[in-house]
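Subject: Porin structure
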Amino acid sequence: MKKVLGVLALVLSVSSLAIADQEQDTLKEIHFSSELRQTYTDKKSNTGNGLGIAGFRGENKEKTKWKNVLGGDLRLVDEGNLGLRFEFQNDQDRVENPFNYKTKTGTKGTVDKAQTWENDIALYKDIKLGAWTAKWDLGWKYKSTNGNGRYAGHRGTSNEIYVGPEFGINFFGQHFDGKAQFVYFDQSGEKDADNAWSGNDFKNGKTSGVGGNFDLTTNGKVFDNGAGNLNYYITLNNHLRDANGKLTETGKDAKSTVYLDYVTGATYKTPELAGFYGLVNTENEWEKQTARHGFKNNFSVWTGLGYKTGIDLSVGTLTLNPEVKYRVVNKETVKGYANDGRYNTDKYTREYNELRAGLNVGLEVK
C-alpha cells in the first residue's frame, strides 16, 4: 500500500508541474499497475494436467510472479513538440523446481528466484511525406534477467533499436492499425530478442543483427448495451531477425527467421453495478519461428471480477481499477523447438491453473 500511495503522490506532483506552464514540457498521461500471478499444475501426473481443484494444493505451485509496470506519455514542447512514450517493467519470479512424483526425481520444495527489468522508450512525431502523414517512432527496448538456479528464467540481456511509421491499412475488409519498423538488435545469454535462437546458442554466447517488424492490430465492439459489452481484438506480429555468427550446434551461420505471433480474443464485461463488474475473456495465441521446426499454441479462458472508479481532480481524471482473474481453461500445445524436454515426445499439450490479483492506476491529464 505504501508503494501505491507513493506512486499516486508522484502522479499528482508531476502532473501539477506539467500543466503549470503550457509552454513547457507537459504530461499527457501516466499509469501504474501491480499484479501478483500464481500458476499451479498437477505435478502428480506426467501430463501436467492442472485442471480441477487438485491444482490448488500448495505442493502444485509452479511459478509466482510479481509484475510492476510504470508508463506514460509526454509532450516535449522545447524539442519541437516531439512525443515521448515510456514504459518500465519489473518482474520478480519464484519458480518451484519440478518434482516427478512417479519416479521420485527432482528436488522437492526448492525455489529458484529471478528478476527481470524491461523498458520501452520511444520518441514519436507526425511526419508528412508528400500526401502521406504518419506517426514515426524511434525507440529502444531493453530486457535483462538475473537469478539463481536452473529454472530462474531466461537470464541474459537484449537490446532492440527500432525506427518506423504507424499507419492504417484495410485488409480483408477489416481496418488494421499497422507498424513497419527497421530493427537493430543484440542478445546475450538466454535472451533472444524475438530471434529463433538465444545468445547462448552462438559460439560466443552472444550475437547481434538487423531485422524488421511488421505488426497489424484491430479491435471492435460486437455489442454495447444494457446487457454489457463484448469486444474483440486481433494482433498479427511478424518480426524478421537476421543474426550474425555461427551456431554452436551446427557450426554454421544462423538462418534468418520470422517470428510469428498471432493473437485473437474477445472480452465480455457485465454492466457495472456501483463500479463493480464481471468479465469473461477467451484468447488464442499461436507462435512460430519459421527457421525452426515446431510451434506453440495457447488457448485460455479467463473469468474475473473488478471495480473501476474515476476521480475528477484539478489536473485531470484519476482512475482506480483493482481486478482479480482466474484462468479456468488453459491448453498449451507445444511442438519442436518449443518443447522444454519435459516429456519424451515431440508434441504434447499441458494445462495450468492461474490466479491473478492486481491494481491499475491511471491519470489522464486535462
